[in-house]
Amino acid sequence: MNKILKSSDGDFLKKFHEVVNYDRSEILDVSSVVSEIIKNVRERGDAAVIEYTSKLDRNNEVQLEVSNDSIEEYIKDVPEDIKDALDLAAERIKNYHQKQLPADQSYQDENETTLGYFWRAVESVGIYVPGGTASYPSSVLMNAIPAKIAGVKDVTMVTPFTDGKINPSIMYAAKVAGITNIHPIGGAQAIAALTFGTETIKPVNKIVGPGNIYVAEAKRQVSGTVGIDMFAGPSEVVIIADTNNEPKIIAADLIAQSEHDPSAQSILICNDESLANNVIKEVDDQISNLPRGEIARSSWDKNGYIIIANDIDESFNLSNQLAPEHLELLIDNAESYLSKISNAGAVFLGKNTPEALGDYIAGPSHVLPTSRSAKFSSGLSVYDFLKKISLIGCTDKSLANLGEAAIKIATNEGLDGHARSIEYRLSKK
């Protein structure tokens, strides 16, 4: 596959639109399987969860709860330097999200009508944390801490103990985030249990966190019964770079995204063909000695591109159409270009800001919109765990001033009962 697309080529727009519209998600219909799992868990509760967990997670000694003593036992195996790193990450995530907390508002307009809104936290949230090779303690912090900052009182974590094992740092991250209610289950059965509850597992009001295609489909099917965060697709990065860059560093950033998953996508946009060719060579060299090189190679070969744009304005225009989960600006005076960005999950400013910092320790949640959904959605934040409740209050004066107009609209819509509820009040004045 030709890795380089030139905007000056006659067929560029056709090729570029193919890149934008190509579906990189797993093409596998699991809806009927997931529907059956959800039905069984809803009807049979714990018994169904235990059966699926034993079979699908290869866990022959299923326990549906992790005791506080067990948590402490797992934590003993976490190296001190990892604990220190997770502590630092947690502190930064807390500080960032505390600044997002919104204020209530109430005011009285010229008609003496009290208007406004106030915020209330979602009462209970379930955090899904993948297991196996995708076992990331950072995901615990990035999902749970914003919920805690928002004021969610009841946070439950589910995570599969594949082959009866769990990464101990997951447990340490849960402790740091203040999660004590942990269930060692995964898959669609965990989503069903969080949605409808079982004898052991309490139902929640919202479910967040990434998972495989079965988890994603389960979240889709229960959405509406509970809230969900988003439909997470394969990870992606777009890098806009000027000529004053080291190919080695650009290649490393492209590979950092590619090693996530064979369906991940890494794209460089620049205006220097010599830089593009050097980056391609660096990518090939670096992948050859990467532990996850096979995954990165598959991702880069199928989904990686370098686009040669005419100028910086075109670079941002193309990036906005790609609406990337992550957008790196490896350009001088990067902050001065923010006005050109319409669509991105997160922006990484300047040549000293690799996307990997955002994955772990910068502060904003790394749960971000994928698959071009940054065109209409945002990354996970405190707002995902808050509800805004409207406030309306009338005095005699405001009811008199507004009532007649409201009656006319209600009557025009054929809702006479609505009109009467106002008329009866006015007739008493």
What strand order characterises the main sheet?
A: 1-11-10-9-12-13
The CATH architecture of the largest domain would be 3-Layer(aba) Sandwich
The share of residues in extended strands comes to: 15-25%
Count of DSSP H/I helices = 16
Overview of the molecule:
By secondary structure, the chain is α/β, with parallel strands linked by helices. The chain folds into 3 domains: 152 residues, Nitrogenase molybdenum iron protein domain (Rossmann fold), CATH 3.40.50.1980; 198 residues, Nitrogenase molybdenum iron protein domain (Rossmann fold), CATH 3.40.50.1980; 34 residues, no CATH class. It has 16 helices and 14 strands. The strands form 3 sheets. A 6-stranded parallel beta sheet has the order 1-11-10-9-12-13, with helices on both faces. The chain has a 5-stranded parallel beta sheet with strand order 6-5-4-7-8, sandwiched between helices. β5, α7 and β6 form a beta-alpha-beta unit. It is globular and about 85 Å long.
